[in-house]
Amino acid sequence: MSNMSEIQTQIAAGLERAFAAHGFSVPNVDMLRDAAQVSLRTLYKYYPSRNDMVLAALEFRHERYLTRIFSGLPASPRDALYEVIRRIGHWMESEASHGCLFHSAVAAAPENEALRNLLQRHKQEFAQRLAASAKLPENEKELLLICEGLMQLWPLYRDDACESALHLAAALLAHTRVEQKTDGSIGSIETVC
Amino acid sequence: MSNMSEIQTQIAAGLERAFAAHGFSVPNVDMLRDAAQVSLRTLYKYYPSRNDMVLAALEFRHERYLTRIFSGLPASPRDALYEVIRRIGHWMESEASHGCLFHSAVAAAPENEALRNLLQRHKQEFAQRLAASAKLPENEKELLLICEGLMQLWPLYRDDACESALHLAAALLAHTRVEQKTDGSIGSIETVC
DNA sequence: CCTCAGGTAGAATGATTGCTCTACTTGCGT
DNA sequence: ACGCAAGTAGAGCAATCATTCTACCTGAGG
Questions:
Q1: pLDDT of B17-69, one tens digit each?
Q2: Do residues A23 and A15 lie in contact, with contact meaning Cβ atoms separated by under 8 Å?
Q3: Domain B1-71 is classified in which CATH homologous superfamily?
Q4: Measured CA to C1', what is the nucleotide nearest B29?
Q5: Is the CB of A163 under 7 A from strand C?
Q6: Which listed residue, A20, A77, B31, B158, has the most CB atoms within 10 A of its CB?
Q7: Which intervals hold domain HTH tetR-type (chains A, B) (predicted)?
């Protein structure tokens, strides 16, 4: 990952850009070569098949995404959570207006197991870091659910999607606080209120 | 839509099955013909291009999905909401284990505007009917966000994704009740329950 | 009996694709 | 000065795909 030659990094960045801009079915290898600004020969030297190029683009994006979302968050768990949601909005605006690249990749090639594994690792690492930042290890899945919903809603509602996600996050925080106060016995939905 | 000949319906159902099982890039027209159990000629007669076949499959699924999710819901808004979430879980289990077909279609062909419009109409109609069933017209976007997040999480967490969605729905209900009680400002915890 | 609308099977076509290969260039260490 | 590692440009190849076309079948109605 970090032991990438300069040219390899340039290629991976170009691949990510191409796939992010046009999805995973449209760009043929010639287009990928143009995006990587490298000859076909060299492209195939580092990534010997188109599928490898897809994986390279996703690995590259994974790193970029995590640093962008989790670098220098506020110390307060609540503020960190809200800030993550806002950053996802900015990320969508500037880099992923068509939706999550990992889901797109899996959707374009559902039988590709390596891709599905990569998606799973990506989402799980994101969820863990989010739960850690928000100091809500019990609610990892709920937090991930909010962020996934946000990314799906964003193409439809733009900034309103962010507002909804923030709203839900606030509701979750308030709700878990209630649950803690009542010794957790109010765990099941039926018993709440 | 409802003025479809018998054979046209059979074709659309077969197309939906094929795309749901294998995504939108893998099945070639021969495969679609096999799924539709019809000759290539007839297939092209009703849907003169592969893209038309994709649209037909999605229209068909749209109808099937809405009836399956919203038919005969409980009268209580809260129970209706919970039931919708559970039904989405069952739907994923039995019909959409790879995720939302509409998102998959758009992911496979991001430059296809007709597809994007269809996705938008599908999600918006779903959101409206859900908000109406749950009697929460103010929170249409939040409800849609929960359901979208659930559909994304389902392939990763299965039934646990449902639990998380139910948990979030409960939090949202509790939270909006508090907001109403306290005129919009988040009130003291004691007013909940 | 004949017609014909509406079906079937599947070969032909033209374009595109992922990938390989040949031939040429360039920069650097000794 | 020379060799070589590592790049470029782009032609060629086998496979695949969407689409069209030819040829044949079938059953209901007059």
A1: 999 999 999 999 999 999 999 999 999 999 999 999 999 999 999 999 999 99
A2: no
A3: Tetracycline Repressor, domain 2 (1.10.357.10)
A4: D18
A5: no
A6: A20
A7: 16-57
